[in-house]
Amino acid sequence: MSATDEFLTANARYAESFDKGDKPMPPARQVAVVACMDARIETGRLLGLEEGDAHVIRNAGGVVTDDVIRSLAISQRLLGTREIVLIHHTDCGMLTFKDDAVKADIEADTGLRPPFALEAFADPAEDVKQSMRRIANSPFVPHKDAIRGFVYHVENGQLKEVHP
Amino acid sequence: MSATDEFLTANARYAESFDKGDKPMPPARQVAVVACMDARIETGRLLGLEEGDAHVIRNAGGVVTDDVIRSLAISQRLLGTREIVLIHHTDCGMLTFKDDAVKADIEADTGLRPPFALEAFADPAEDVKQSMRRIANSPFVPHKDAIRGFVYHVENGQLKEVHP
């Protein structure tokens, strides 16, 4: 049985007792979370999110890319969020490689060098600050007065705040 | 109290009983999920995910953008995932606007027209197929033989498969 089939079995159980079908589209707590895709980060549990509470944007690293700016622009302009929470974490995959080396590997395998940055970084807290500066520098995110950044510790479950 | 401060209170409770500090970096179930950022989508609960199980990539719409390709390339090449699960959903914010209108609004407010697509779409199932085709067309995602797409129904909690 594939993981996807296991997901469908779990979803059937979830839907059986589902009682949240009347939640509105705009996030109740008016916040957008930007976090790494890492499998150990279970955003709902570690932040205490209920269905309907917050937008959750995730990618490799939790870095603020143009696609995150797109998502934040839609989140704030069209769906009313006002706070942003950035979450990087310890033991991140992005700490284990350098862009140039992976680009060279990809080029060796495919013949094509990727036309995008891989976004590897050397320190999660420093990269949270980089992400904060990218938002500060973007004209497309209208509300910037409630942005906070954290490093999540996969070894003990704790969020630690990064002060810019 | 801000939503962010409430998250920190919830996180302190989560960390108190945390017993998952020894999970490895590669996802145990070797799958990457690509889902919309919508607040009503609680990926962990609706798929039955435990900490360590799966990469979770999310943006506005759950659309496959270049940043999702970047994340999938890292997920598969460096962290061993082999399945991809795409999740769009009913009552999505991306159904409520057109790119041109939002771009014009942003230009009116900021003086700048965004140099990226907003990625609005008219039908979630059709856009799941679009996302499948974008992955099929990308040279940077090496493993493409286990890609499945779904529309999540926010009104009843059910995933319904999209057959390409």
From TrEMBL, chains A, B:
Binds 1 zinc ion per subunit. Zn(2+) binds at C36, D38, H89, C92. The keyword Metal-binding applies. Its EC number is 4.2.1.1. SMART domains: Pro_CA (SM00947). SUPFAM superfamilies: beta-carbonic anhydrase, cab. This is Carbonic anhydrase.
